[in-house]
Amino acid sequence: MHATEKPRPLGVYLWLLLMLVLGGGGLYGGLTFLADPSGAGLGMTPQELPAFLVQDYTLPGLFLAVAMGVLPLAILAGLWARPDWAWAGRWNPWKAYHWTWSAGLGMGLLLVAWMIFEIAMIGFGSPLQVIFTAWGGLLTGVALLPGVRAYYRAA
Asked: Which residues, other chains included, contact 8 with Cβ-Cβ below 8 Å and sequence gap of 6+?
């Protein structure tokens, strides 16, 4: 840590941990679906999918690997390093905060939206749906903690 850098509050470490577990789980689930599109590797069957959208788990696996695996891990790296990338800052909808804070908040909201979409498409069938919806709520809630917001406030 540089002499001028402020210390990370506990909430930031919690947020990083939540992002790490999401990214690891997303990569695992996504790559498992891609390796076996039947879904058997995760105890699922193609009959659980809405037939009008997809026939196997290839597209859900790709989505999980990228949107719930690689993306949260990339956000995690950004939340840790807080790189000053002008191009990323231009896309930041909340200019009062570092762009990585906005990306992390967005990741929590994306997870909640994905779970709502999944439940709407295939119905409620697993306690994991509740867990991941709550996980998205936690990611969002931790991002909004005063200490976390203060740490990522734009300079």
From this structure: 151
**pTM given for the model:** 0.88
Asked, for residue 42, whether it belongs to a domain, the answer is no
Within 13 A of 118's CA, how many CA atoms are on the CB side? 19
Closest CA to 32 of 43, 21, 22, 23: 43
Residue 1 lies in a domain: no
Q: Residue 61: pLDDT above 60?
A: yes
**pLDDT value for 3:** 43
Give the count of beta carbons closer than 10 Å to the beta carbon of residue 23: 21
Contact 152, 101 (CB under 8 A): yes
Domain that holds residue 131: 10-26+60-151
Distances (CA, A) of 50 to 4, 23, 141: 53, 25, 31
Contacts of 140 (CB under 8 A, 6+ apart): 105, 108, 109, 112
Q: Is residue 22 part of a domain?
A: yes
